[in-house]
Structures are given as C-alpha cells and as structure tokens.
Amino acid sequence: MPVTSQLLRGLPRTKVLASSLLPCQQHQSWLGPITHGPASKQPCHAWQSQHQSRSYQTASVLRSYILTPPQVNSILKANEYSFKVPEFDGKNVSSVMGFESNQLPANAPIEDRRSAATCLQTRGMLLGVFDGHAGCACAQALSERLFYYIAVSLLPHDTLCELEAAVEAGRALSPILQWHKHPNDYFSREAQTLYFNSLRTYWQELIDLTSPGEVPDTHEALLNAFKRLDSDISLEAQVGDPNAFLHYWVLRVAFSGATACVAHIDGQDLYIANAGDARAVLGVQEEDGSFSAHTLSNDHSAQNDDEMARIRGEHPPSERKTVIRQDRLLGLLMPFRAFGDVKFKWSIELQKRVLESGPDQLHENEHTKFIPPNYHTPPYLTAEPEITYHKLRPQDRFLVIGSDGLWETLHRQEVVRIVGEYLTGGGLEDWT
After folding, report:
1. Taking 70 as the threshold, does the pLDDT of residue 268 lie above it?
2. pLDDT of 121 strictly over 70
3. Beta-bridge mates of residue 386
4. Angle at which helices 38-51 and 56-65 pack, to 10 degrees?
5. In this structure, are residues 36 and 76 in contact, taking their beta carbons and an 8 Å threshold?
6. Do residues 272 and 296 make contact, with C-beta atoms less than 8 angstroms apart?
7. How many CB atoms sit inside 10 A of residue 154's CB?
8. Using an 8 Å Cβ cutoff, are 340 and 254 in contact?
9. Residue 23: pLDDT above 90?
10. Phi, psi (5° rounding) for residue 280?
11. Is the pLDDT of residue 150 over 60?
12. In which broad location class does this protein mainly occur, judging by the first location in its UniProt entry (predicted)?
C-alpha cells in the first residue's frame, strides 16, 4: 500500500499522505485478525464464513495463519518511509513540512509504486502514486520517469539550452531532481540510457517550441509531461531495441498499465494531475478542531458520469452498448485513463506486427495474447490527466494521495479523520 502524507506549514505548510491499497487475495500470509483497520479484517472474515463448517483439522490450519500483533506491525511497517522537509533549503521556503508513505502488498510482486522528489532547478515538490495492473512494469517505469518529464516541462527555455549544451560538450549535468526513496525502491539500471535519450529528445523539442525568457505554465507542463511520457512508452515498444532484455522490457511496460495521481506543491500553489482512479484528498481543519475532507481529483471510472459521456462521445453510436460494459472499458479495464495498456490504444494491425517481432517470452504473457472484444475504433484509452488547482490556506493541514483500493475500503472522511487524529494526538510533534 503506497501511502504519502504531507503536512502543510504556516503558509500553510502541509503534510501529504499517499496511500495505495490493493484488494486482498486469498492466499496472503496476513489472513489472521489484523486490528489495523477494516481493510485487513475483510479477508479473515470472508475466509472464516466460507469454511466455518469444516472439520477441526481445518480450524487448526486457520489458527496457524493467525499472526501476533508484533508480526502484524512488522508487515505493516516493512515499506514505511518518512521524510522531514527543511523549512528553508537555502533558496526557498517550503510549504511542505514532510511526508509519510507506505505500501501494503496484496499480491506478489506488488504492482503499485510511489515516488517523491524535490525539484532542484525550479521550485516545488512532487509526490505520486502509480497503481499498476497486468504487471508492475508500467508502474515501475512511471515511478522512475514521470517526475523527470514534469521537471523538464517546468524548466525555462534558457535552462533547457544549458542542459543541451552540457550534453553536447560531454559535461556533467546539474541534477534537476532530489529523490526521496525508500531503501526497497529501485531504478531499472539497464533502461537508464534509453530513458535518458527519450527525455533528451523531449527537451530538445521544448527548446524549439519555447522562446528565451518564457516561463512555463504549471498546468500545461503537467499536461504535456503525462502525454509525452505515454507517447514515448508507446514509441519505444514499437521501435524495439537491439538488446534483447531491453526489447522485452519496453514491451512489458507498454502492454501492462498504470494509473497515476501526482501532486506538485510550490508555496501556496497545489496542483493535482490525475489519470485513472487514484484520488487526492485534502484534510481541512475546521474552527472547532475537527477535520473535513476536500476531494481534489475525479475518479476516471464508471462512477464518473462525465467520463462515461466522454468515452461514448469519442466513438460511433454503433459502439454505445459495447464501449463500456459491466462498468469496464470494453468490458475489461476499470480505469478509463491510464499509461501503457497499448492493447486499448494501438490498431489491431500494429499490435500483431509488434507481437510477431517480439521476443518469445512476450508470447507467454497472457495479457498480450488477446485483442479486446468489440475493438473497432481505437484508441479507447488515454493518459491525458485531469488537472486541478488549489491555493493552500492555513486550515489546509495535509493531503492524502491513494489508489482506488484505499478509497474503496475507507470513506474519504474516515481517512481524513484517522490522519487528523494521528497528527493532533501525538504524531504532530515529530514534524514541528
């Protein structure tokens, strides 16, 4: 479960808590009674209700899965990460006091990722949750790459020119991000050259499209970064790579998928860029000391009437009954926006051509073997984010970013209440 929480300072300065909670699977080691919250209790109760008439032998097996409180805490804390942000970094005053994040896997390997980084060449902090499906490759790629695309999109023309000049001259590049990583988080070293070359091509195009002295617009920067990275993921898979491992990797990234919810916080300016069904919720402290939830993003799913209308409007009337079936895109995919997932974006001809020339391992992947039903007018899926802006106020205390699993388990008001009580009941002194 990736969780990121940010506490806002006097500007206000905020705490962000990002969380991703995946649905529980039947064969997890934490089937026993876990008292951390409803999410952990559900699998235990379901298992017992299905097997309560079994023999004593089955009951003894069930008891063998019951975990002690220290074991439960060990599982819940395994992927915790906490970071305290300096109030002044030598250049700017930060509105972010710190963040906490966590991941609780419901399958192996976990398909979700989380990232946090400070922008060094501009101002602001980036935090994101990436909810993967059909494998972890796409979410992993987003956790490594998306913040670089955003950071480059935010750079003024002159700084982009300095970057390109340094590469041309073979000089070391000034870093544009300071990452805040959990020890278990990692980068795909084999793909770094490929990733850098794609990023460089992007900033070269930005140089051509911008003028000296031009200051990027944050809204446009976030929009362009999301769309360009998804385009690069698609292009890299089509081109392939002479290196067999990289060829397989870029195809895995493209054929798997991931939603993304990213916050960019700079002083009082908070932007949320969301593509998919993750969610960002602001914790607001009222005058009486209680906390209320203010949702800053919209879920791109069948529960969103505007999204339903958007998708149906992008395809012929003849597909009205098939483009969304059983609350899923083409009856298969729950989020209506996502990175990767090229089987919902490419033409049938392109999919067949790429798969026929791909490595043998790819044909063993069940997610690449089929064309979605009623597949007539692609693309059906986009990674274009919906972007919202919020000017932070003194009563805005923290931000929670979480994947759909968190919000399906707990109502947003309950999440905000729990975090608010933690901050006011003993956790807050660690951040002051």
Report:
1. yes
2. yes
3. 274
4. 170
5. yes
6. yes
7. 25
8. yes
9. no
10. -115, 125
11. yes
12. mitochondrion
Within its chain, how far is the Cα of 27 from the centroid? Answer: 25
Q: From CA 44, how far away is CA 46, in angstroms rounded?
A: 6
* Overall size of the chain counted in residues: 432
* Cα–Cα distance measured from residue 99 to residue 431, given in angstroms and rounded to the nearest whole number: 9
Q: What is the mean pLDDT of residues 137-166?
A: 97
Domain map (residue ranges) of the chain? 4-29+77-310+341-431, 30-66
- Residue 203 · residue 152 · CB < 8 Å: yes
Q: How far is CA 220 from CA 17, 154, 217, 239, 384, in A?
A: 25, 9, 5, 28, 11
Structure token pair of residue 140: 């992993």
Annotate 21-35 with DSSP letters as a single string: EPPP-TT-TT-S--T
The two tokens of residue 395 are 């009563």
* Rounded Cα distance, 294 and 125, in Å: 20
Question: What is the predicted pLDDT for the residue at 35?
Answer: 27
Angle at 425 between CA 422 and CA 426, to 5 degrees: 85
**Statement: residue 44 has pLDDT above 90:** no
Q: Over the chain, what is the mean pLDDT?
A: 84
Start-to-end Cα distance in the chain: 26
CB 351 within 8 Å of CB 371 = yes
**What CATH number is given for 4-29+77-310+341-431 in this structure?**
3.60.40.10
Burial class of 275 by CB neighbour count within 10 A (0 to 12, 13 to 18, 19+): buried
Which residue's structure tokens are 């819940």?
A: 76
Per-residue pLDDT at 240? 79
Write phi, then psi, for 223 (nearest 5 degrees).
Answer: -60, -50
Average pLDDT, stretch 19-23?
A: 37
> Is 173 in contact with 167 (CB distance < 8 Å)?
yes
Label residues 356-378 b or e (16+ Cβ within 10 Å = b).
Answer: eebeeebeebeebeeebebbeeb
Neighbours of 96 (CB within 10 A): 32
DSSP class of 343: G
What's the gap between Cα 110 and its chain centre? Answer: 13
